[in-house]
Amino acid sequence: MTQSTWDAVDAYFSEQLVGHDPALDAAAAAADAAGLPKIAVAPNQGKLLHLLALTQGARRILEVGTLGGYSAIWLARALPADGTLITLEIDPKHAEVARGNIARAGLEKVAEVRLGRAADSLAALVEQGVEPFDLVFIDADKPSNPEYFRRALQLTRPGSLIIVDNVVRSGAVADADSTDPAVVGTRALHDLIAAEPRVTATSVQTVGSKGYDGFTLARVQG
User: How does DSSP assign 9-27, residue by residue?
Assistant: First the structure.
């Protein structure tokens, strides 16, 4: 199969099951206009996050890696009116775009963008002893994934879900000799998960408009 086939299938399912949404379309357009990298989740992937959060009955969501706020909007829409989403972003320009997109989507009361290194922001949340999160979505710099996952375990409860995006790396994750920092970090993440008795997890390969990649889904056991 070719990328054009993957694109066509994604477009078909997005048209059939996701549709067009003014706030999400505006968020994608604003990110493009600001020159942000074109690495946000696809519409059908965004809806998957939304459905997982709904199925989880999430009241508190943590996102590591905001970019332009596209996935944050999907996740925040799954929250009840008194829910909370905290999304972490290191780049001031990205954070500014995301805040604007979140506000235009009418979600500024439930979604907060925190600026700074994710490692520092996560450590601060642990130090503050915040109420556990029901779902954590990790989609930031891949070399830091093991650290982000360890912090996510400190910030969740039994029954919480942790989702880590972009774990297949176009198949490079299977290369034990890779020196690519993103691959090394991703493999270290899965070593950590495999040895962690507090979670049960699986990883799924995906193809689509974002190419060949995948995600890891972990449930906190205790």
Answer: HHHHHIIIII---HHHHHH
Q: Is the pLDDT of residue 205 over 90?
A: yes
Q: Do 84 and 135 meet the contact criterion of CB atoms below 8 Å apart? A: no
pTM, entire model: 0.96
3-state SS class at 167: coil
Instruction: Give the pLDDT confidence score for residue 58 in this predicted structure.
Output: 98
pLDDT of residue 87: 98
Q: What are phi and psi of 36, to 5 degrees?
A: -70, 150
Give the tokens for residue 127.
């130090």
pLDDT value of residue 25:
96
Determine the residue type at 25: D
| 3-state DSSP assignment of residue 4 | helix
* DSSP conformation letters of 38-105: S-SPPHHHHHHHHHHHHHHT-SEEEEE--TTSHHHHHHHTTS-TT-EEEEEES-HHHHHHHHHHHHHT
